[in-house]
Amino acid sequence: MINVKLQDGKVIEVVAGEKIIDIIKKISNSLAKEAVSAILNGETVSLEETVEEDSDLEILKFDDERAKDAFRHTSSHILAQAVKRLYPEAKLGIGPSIENGFYYDFDMEHRLTDDDLKKIEKEMKKIVESNYPLEKFVLPRDEAIKFMKEKSEEYKVELINDLPEDEEISFYKQGDFTDLCAGPHVSKTGQIKAFKLMSVAGAYWRGSEKNKMLQRVYATSFPKQKELDEYIEKLEEAKKRDHRKIGKEMDLFAIMEEGPGFPFFFPKGMIIRDELERFWRKEHHKRGYQEIKTPLILNEQLWHTSGHWDHYQDNMYFTKIDDGDYAIKPMNCPGAMLSYKRRMYSYRDLPIRLCEMGQVHRHELSGALHGLMRVRTFTQDDAHIFMLPEQIKDEIIGVIDFIDYVYKLFEFKYHIELSTRPEDFMGNAEEWDMAENALKEAMEEKNIPYIINEGDGAFYGPKLDFHLEDCLGRTWQCGTIQLDFQMPQRFDLTYVGSDGEKHRPVMIHRVVFGSIERFIGILIEHFAGKFPLWLAPVQVNLLTVTEKFAPFALELADRMRDAGIRCEADVRNEKIGYKIREARNARNSYICVIGEKEVEDNTLQVRSIKQGELGSIDIDDFIKKLLDEIKAKQA
RNA sequence: GCUGGCGUGGCUCAACGGUAGAGCAGCUGAUUUGUAAUCAGCAGGUUGGGGGUUCGAUUCCCUCCGCCAGCUCCA
Known about the structure:
alpha+beta
């Protein structure tokens, strides 16, 4: 007698050798029925064999990361097996489980095409249908190397050689295929019911551009076809929301061939930018920041002083003026340093918070460019806070709270990552430790959980990065708080302490939006172009049924604009259905129809881009409602 | 930058070794219309740039530029 735990937690008793149909009869829950038949694949198998294997009956749903990894990892082995069957000369790289699926890297002469992917999928189906058990075995190091050498798997040999001395070297075998692997796996290939090969792309062996580029096949898999379908649907939704597509449709911005990575903003895009900036200024003034503006071009000597020459040169643009060498700023900090340095400060003056909408230029690799998300010129909503050492923690907390306030306003979820000292760092290790500890203390005091990225800090200091999550669950790095003990030294910044002596202030670099351009890109995708009213380029669109109502519409449009509402009137001689279609495609927030009835009653037939039909609304009430809604989000 | 794919009028796309075609948008005219496309006409492209193969190239080859996916990097 064996107890089998079902997905819904229910336990049933089965006897070895019992017929599948009898087992299924015991299960009332249809989901569980499906599950059991899925595992057993309609065959009569002995139950000892099924239950013996480590907890696989439960991988019917990704209820924990381990189950998901095992499932995807087995999927990647099936992919590799299929590829080896079709292209025996292919050498295997690695095939891990990743965020939304898995991949496998192959080194092979033949360039894989989309048609090849279809063939590979077919072969994978055969492997799934064969329902091979996955069998683990362990080999001593020398035998493991010999084994892989025999198969000419040179990358695997390299991996084995790099494994720590004390680590077990395990392999998993499924039918005619064996792979070096630490596991875990599901018990049989038959469990991988729903999978799809997504794409093939180049990827450097072990992620280093010095190594050979392999062909990486991306794929995903799920326990159920329905989940795979949902995932694909989500990808399609993301595609529809692509800010490059919506940006074009709404006429917000464009990046032209004449300036790769240098975006143009058009009138409607500028409205969004202006509103964000206005909001940003108001919030900064509230929090004791003073705004500055520093030059885009400054001489080369300055960049030697700041350390950018030594650490950031590859990303900078240079120019000559008369006989002098100049650089276009890739960061705003040197300008802020000079601004601080223009006069003397007392300890009573600190903290000094200087903020700047600073446009920077960075030479990014051409292949890295991506719409507004990754560009070569962007505007950082920067600030540099100069403070006494004892003010560090409070200032960091102030910035954390500020960023939290802004992200919540846009209904973003986010998480924080702490990046520590990189290999190419400036200054000395003790100061770095102090800076890292200050960030940790602030986080701990706020009781905020965070991830640590070892060695990922900026060259001048450790940082807290804010990764915000949009409505589709994708994350983007935006805000960052960087603590810097280096720049104040390099620029010899001082303040006069209560002892009458000169002391060195500590500095924070920070951004909230990160880059206005990227933030707008994220907002476009997050809201699918249907912006909160205060950001919407066209807040109200008045549509006349016939030209007869044009004077009424034009006058009302003027009145709304006077009241501070962005209003457009469409009085063209077109059918109302046509105008509505255009207004909806433009994602105008409120679309109002004006005809005989409306003119008589002083009302509007209103439809909201987000909520649909709102019916007939009195004009005065509607204006009031609009003004309230515009204000509500900017409190 | 690297690997692969792609580049046709403002936009979305078609065709093809014999010098390009549609829809939308634009313009003109008719229509005066009640909730996702009224009708007709006109105009618009040396098929990303340059070079080569060919009797002939937009189609094949080379090269440069740009775009897309991924790698690397990052706000």
